[in-house]
Amino acid sequence: MYKKTIVAAICILYSISIQSQDIVLKGKELFGNLEARQIGPALMSGRIIDLENHPTNSKVLYAGTAGGGVWKSENAGASFTSVFDDHAQSIGVVAIDPNDPDKTVWVGTGEIWTRNSVSIGDGLYKSSDGGANWKKMGFENSERISSIEINPKNSNEVYVGVMGALWGDSPDRGVYKTTDGGKTWNKILYVNEKTGVNDLIMDPNDPNTLYAAMWEFRRTAWGFNSGGPESALYKSTDAGKTWNKIHNGFPKGDLGRFAIAIAPSNSKIVFAVVESKENKGLYRSDDAGANWKLLNGDFGLVVRPFYFSRLVVHPKNPDILVKGGLFGSISRDGGKTFKNLGDMHADIHDIVFDINNPDAMYVGTDGGVYRSWDGGATLDMVDNLPVSQFYHISVDNEEPYNIYGGLQDNGSWWGPSSSPGGIEARDWKRVGVGDGFRVLKHPSKNIIYSEMQGAQNVWRYDVDKNYTKNVQPLPIKGEADLRFNWNAPMAVSNHQPDRFYMGSQFLHVSEDMGDNWKKISPDLTTNDPAKQDKESGGISVDKSGAETHTTIFTIAESPIDQKIIWVGTDDGNVQVTQDGGVTWTNTVANIQGLPKNTWVYHIEASTHNKATAYAVFDGHASGDMTTYVYKTSDFGKTWKSIVTDEIIGFARNIQEDYVNEDLLYLGTEFGLFITINGGKNWSRFTNNMPATAVHFIDLQKKSNDLVLGTHGRGVIIIDDISPLRQINQEVLIKDVHFFDTKSFAIKEEGGFGGGSTELQFVGDNPSASAKIIYYLKKRHTFGKMTLSIQDQNGNEIVSLVPGKSKGINIVDWNFRKKAPKVAAGKTFTFGGFTAPRAPSGTYKVILTKGKKQYESTITLQNDPKSLITENDRIVHRKITKELFDDMEDLAYLVYKIDQNIKKAEGIAKKDPASQKVTSAVIATLNALKETLVVTTGDNYVNEAEPQLREKLSKLYGEVADQFEKPSFSQIENKEVLEKRLNEGKTAYEKINNKQIAKLNKYLEKSGNTTAEILDKEKFLTK
Fold first, then answer.
1. In the chain, is it the N or the C terminus that has fewer CB atoms within a 10 Å radius of its CB?
2. CB burial class (10 A; 0-12, 13-18, 19+) of residue 891?
3. How much of the chain is helix, strand and coil, in % rounded to 5?
């Protein structure tokens, strides 16, 4: 008995423990059908890494991008579709299987043009259905895959060149080979942990012959080194079993990155652009690499080898070759002389020639894909590739609100969150050039701050005056030169609208929008001289300012207390002042588990507690891909990590929710992660959200929209995240829970927009509908489920299709009631698709799930900007209702006519003796019907004259769609049409009392039933 009691007690305690555990929803279980919308823009597009075209179908083309995944065109580059959203968006190479080009495609991830802002990859992928689905084929730690070569005689034989890690050593570098389609891999060429494959090419006429360019390189946060004793060009003639250096004729000493290409029409002709201290340039071999001769050392061929090392030979003419570069160089005499390609965005990364048209080519640049039909003399840009790379975004409080941001090599811009017809290229306005970074709107004036790389220019732009002034802080005589990060930090005060902050190694503040500056800090960095003013580039000097280090990178003024300012530096300091800059405290030593000098990428000052802040650290520039996110609640005296294993990728930005401090949004190199419990659990948001690098997050307070600046997929918005604020354990244990929603305004708008062509990208607008938002504990799978909008008396206004997913469900209501029943006719009429709007007020929302009902309310309000009086609204509703009833009266009248005609025609076929009475019914009713509805023609080229239905429908549709009361002419037209309707009803009654009555008498006498006619109420609800 005692043992049984103990066992029972344990069971009870275990049951209580299980019940008390928190319910944790993950991913789509949490987010339901809350969706992101991608608004681009595409007018400036973004960096293209690799272009590959189908070997036999000139219409098929793939584009691999720097941070926007892989895109496919099936119309010769006129437009592209994303085919790689779910995977790492940084692409190194795309390869089409020549044996199965319609289906088999390989993708190596990780950008290979190794500037300081490149993203990383996570392996090799293969598609067997033309890009619809992808399977990972290994190389998870490769970071950057530069090359994929497929044996044109054997698809199972594939070679992969791994460039490897940019920021550290990597044993994964080298050339790999599979003979079983990717199931297993063997490393067949390896030099060391510092030297990777920057290019691997196969002889198109002999798959056993391969060339591998091995490159020794390393980037740090403060410098770059290209080249070394291990950089070399290798050749194999036995399918990779043995390799030999082929340097006869190359410069002596250390070499850097190679660009290599074989002439497909003559494999003995091989070209190589060699990076070296002396005699750098284009070399040519006419004996398959045995000997080399320097042809050309033009600047366009040798500039920035780490960024431009693509060399392409025309597939049919070995004298035509193109080299990527600042402007792109093309030769038509076998490499002896070159000229620039035609006008397009600078920084050319890849070129492919059309397989059929010798004059057609495609070019991938920092600004997107360009096409040429005249051999590169002139080029036009593809307008629907939204792969722009934002470093930073911000929003204002306009309606609709605007988004501001700076782009990699594409300037700074601002544009709307919605626009008539969708967000078009013409909606975006430029506010800067060069590499654009932070763009900030003045809180109360029509002033925009923007900058270009390294604070070379800091612009204050007066939008109304169209006037720009450069206001960057300048060094003061006798004091240290200023060090500005390439992505220099700016901030606008939450408390003093004209206060403007900038960070060099010092924190600068201006109280007059940048006209005058003062320093309010000492040097807040480590000021490590070893990380300053180094000659960067290695063999090729490349001192652009991008490697300026030991600088301030992030500034956060507390929204609660203006004297509290946080500063984070790129060399790992987390500084805070609580007295407006008089004294500073470096709190980084209080952070446990953080490697020393880890880049402070973002600090977020809390809106809920002035002692609270969040710090995001990014160690990838030292080879550390760990996620670091910390929170302090005591001004940095102590910090705690809020990272879990659920987060993928190193982090760049965090946003605290303005209402619920446990709701946090985190941007990482592989997407967006959200926690609803202060960091105990994180979920990746994937609903129409690609796995792209999220560099910055802002939250629009009025709309509750989460706005993401991504480095490869432009601006992405998640509209109204407020349901996430309301999720807690009380909600999660319910079977059904309706979330509170704000009043929805019935906006009195109606514009055109739509000025873009079919081939231009247009960003989606947010839904203008009211939203019914509810949570389901389990997905509804069996039984009936309905969603009804009712007035306060329980009368149904409209029935909606409910969402049945586990988690959050969002159902749109367009403020409309049921559309009227429309009279049947030969053609359709647009008025039949128009439902009257529901007036402002509060409505019941009834969700019926099986035998249970759940109730909520939704409130509609008139447009706050409306000038329409309530009396006018009453008149509008009254006339709309009368026209609605007229539409249904006509529908019922035509229904009765049709039922009687159908009956008479049926009897006439069966009973010839009925001809006299049936023909009279058919003739008289058809004659009447022809005056009521269109009975001939179609909706376009054979359009018949409109009859009563068409005229009444047009008037009803116009009145129901407008907001103001009907005009006198509309009311007069209504009276004319109602007179015709009444005449039609009278005419029907006469026929019913005469011809139809005779038919019915005949039917009764002959033992037949009369026409079955529903009463009006049943007819309208059937």
1. N
2. buried
3. 15, 35, 50
For residue 950, what is the enclosing H or E element? Answer: helix 948-961
Q: Across the chain, which distance is largest between two alpha carbons, in Å?
A: 119
Q: 697 and 688 in contact (C-beta within 8 Å)?
A: no
By three-state DSSP, how is residue 975 classified?
helix
Dump pLDDT digits (tens) for 317-373.
999 999 999 999 999 999 999 999 999 999 999 999 999 998 999 999 999 999 999
Distances (CA, A) of 102 to 62, 354, 897, 952, 1001: 12, 17, 57, 54, 71
What does the pLDDT look like over 686-726, one tens digit per residue? 999 999 999 999 999 999 999 999 999 999 999 999 999 99
Residues 6 or more apart in contact with residue 451 via CB below 8 angstroms: 406, 412, 432, 436, 437, 438, 439, 457, 458, 459, 472, 488, 490
Q: Give the list of residues 6+ apart from residue 240 with CB closer than 8 angstroms, or none.
A: 159, 175, 177, 188, 189, 210
Tell me how far apart the alpha carbons of residues 272 and 93 are, in angstroms, rounded to a whole number: 19
3 state DSSP class of 929: helix
Average pLDDT of the segment spanning 35-49: 96
Kindly write down the DSSP assignment for every residue of 205-223, as one continuous string. Answer: TEEEEEEEEEEEEEEETTE
Q: What angle do CA 678, 684, 686 make, to 5 degrees?
A: 140
Nearest to 204 by CA among 292, 128, 270, 278: 270
Q: Kindly indicate the confidence band of residue 18, based on its pLDDT and cuts at 50, 70 and 90.
A: very low
CATH 2.60.40 in the chain: give the residue spans: 744-751+759-861
Structure tokens at 97: 């299987």
pLDDT at 956 over 90: yes
> Does residue 535 or residue 594 have the better pLDDT?
594
pTM exceeds 0.70 for this model? yes
Report CA Rg, the chain. 35
Distance, in Å, from the CA atom of 456 to the CA atom of 804, rounded to the nearest integer, reads 54
3-state secondary structure 413-425: EEEECCCCCCECH
Residue 274 half-sphere exposure toward CB, CA atoms < 13 A: 31
What proportion of the chain, given as a percentage, has pLDDT over 90?
A: 91
Look at residue 680 in the predicted model and tell me its pLDDT: 96
User: CB-based contacts of 847: which residues, under 8 Å, 6+ apart?
Assistant: 736, 738, 774, 785, 786, 787, 802, 853, 854, 855, 856
Amino acid 554 reads T
Using the structure block, give the residue that is written with the tokens 């949490």. 30
Beta strands in 128-265 (DSSP E): 135-136, 145-151, 154-162, 174-178, 186-189, 195-203, 206-220, 223-226, 232-236, 244-245, 255-263
- How confident is the model over 81-122, as pLDDT tens digits? 999 999 999 999 999 999 999 999 999 999 999 999 999 999
State the Cα–Cα distance between residues 226 and 547, nearest whole angstrom. 14
CA 698, CA 717: separation in Å to the nearest integer? 10
The region of weakest confidence among 114-128, 197-211, 824-838 is 824-838
Predicted confidence (pLDDT) at residue 8 exceeds the cutoff of 80 = no
The letter for the amino acid at 29 is E
Which tokens in the block code for residue 152?
């044109």
Write out pLDDT tens, residues 887-934. 999 999 999 999 999 999 999 999 988 999 999 999 999 999 999 999
Q: In what order do the strands lie in the sheet with 467-470?
A: 440-441, 447-451, 458-462, 467-470
Instruction: Assign 302 to helix, strand or coil.
Output: helix
Tokens of 436: 């654009």
Average pLDDT over residues 490-514: 98
What phi, psi does 743 have (nearest 5°)?
A: -65, 145
In sequence order, the 6+-apart residues with CB closer than 8 A to the CB of 420 are 749, 751, 752, 753, 754
Q: Does domain 744-751+759-861 have CATH number 3.30.420?
A: no
User: Which two structure tokens, joined as six digits, stand for 631?
Assistant: 């929170």
